[in-house]
Amino acid sequence: MAGLSQRQSDILNIARAFGRVMVDELARRFEVSAQTIRKDLNDLCDQRTLTRIHGGAIIASGIENLAYEARRFVAAEEKKAIGVAAAARIPNGCSLFINIGTTTEEVASALTSHEDLLVITNNLNVAMQLYRHPRIEVIVAGGNVRRSDGAVIGSSATSLIGQFKVDYAIIGASAIDEAGTLLDFDYREVQVSQAIIANARSVMLVADGTKLRRSAPVRIAHISQIQTFVTDAALPADLDAICQAQGIEVIVAMPGKPEELDGAEAEPVADGRPRAVG
Q1: Which end of the chain is less crowded, N or C, counting CB atoms within 10 A of the terminal residue's CB?
Q2: Do 232 and 209 contact (CB within 8 A), yes or no?
Q3: CA dihedral over 256, 230, 147, 126, signed as positive or negative
Q4: pTM listed for this prediction
Q5: DSSP letters along 90-134, please?
């Protein structure tokens, strides 16, 4: 790529090979200061070839999503906090959809102590997390498996989703624009997500703040179609105003701070909206 130093080209090749690069590791490898590496990463980010993460960078996304292994490193602690907060809103004894995504996988991880759940998912990683737990029944949507991340996509998966009407849906999105549109990269995955939204009484969006700074080409839905939004930071003013106008519950989960329900426990939905009872 024109304008890059040899070291920057080498850093970019390493990022392409491994999905991410870390400042300290690069400083040792090239025998330069961490400050020098940070400048290299900033230059590469300015050219939109890399995206900064805590302590390093990953390959930038464009019309295609980041590789699954790279996505796992983006806002990892924030996703974990979101997962814990979202799981705290799911009662025992309910049914739910969980779609594809590294954030939805964190929700699944936080659900393992729940009891008497029925989980329908098109995410093989979620199924592998949950199927060993005797008080959680798991149904996996059939269809083509996307090799990159274990997503089950296509018409067969969409058809199976349509056979259920569940209490909750846990969905992710690759991007959220300023008008509240939820976006993704693969139209086949989006079709499954749309079926999930249509067949759940209450929809919970789980997405970290980086999704507000990205773009993707395929429309999943509008944020007005969800009831709860769990994220890790305050929303931009325009998006916050949309959520307030639509009556969407926004939960901000901070890394390292467990979600508190003020002594309340979630009650199963009867009217499509989550409630808390003392």
Answers
A1: C
A2: yes
A3: positive
A4: 0.73
A5: SPSS-EEEE-SSHHHHHHHHHTTT--SEEEEESBHHHHHHHTT-T
